[in-house]
Design a protein that fits this description.
The chain has 136 residues and is an alpha/beta fold. Helix content is 29%, strand content 34%.
């Protein structure tokens, strides 16, 4: 996995702030798509993430979308809103959305906001494998 690039972003006045760029890649499998995200999801990067995820849906609705967040260092409320929007759109099409391997900082945000009960969180060790069927 490629490391995130770090750039300077102009801040207020002559100050500069660090900005970690967002990297997004997509892999398609038989019944699902894996979207791998690395970097930070914030006010600056959320629009790009939204565009990338919209493109996944535009390419044809997979049965299942797995968002691999193992490389995400930070996600603010703007990023969570992008993920919630995707979840809504996926469910409208009778699909599934899973969040795989969020780092502790992202997992804490999910827990504090109660979104860990909204999203399906999965272990990322077998992202390319189909999800096992639930016994009836």
């Amino acid at each position: 996995m490629a490391l995130s690039a770090v750039t300077w972003r102009p801040g207020a006045g002559h100050d500069r702030v660090w900005h970690v760029e967002l990297k997004v890649s997509t892999r398609f499998h038989d019944d699902h798509t894996i979207v791998t995200i690395s970097g930070e999801i914030d006010l600056y990067t959320a629009p790009r993430l939204h565009s990338e995820l919209a493109a996944v849906l535009a390419d044809g609705m997979p049965t299942r979308i797995v968002i691999d967040m193992s490389g995400v260092e930070f996600c603010d409320s703007t990023g969570m809103n992008v993920l919630l929007s995707l979840l809504r759109r996926v469910r409208e099409r009778d699909g599934e959305l899973e969040i795989a391997s969020p780092k502790p900082a992202v997992r804490k945000i999910l827990q504090v906001t109660g979104l860990d009960a909204v999203f399906t969180l999965v272990d990322g060790t077998n992202l390319s494998q189909p999800k096992p069927a639930i016994p009836s």
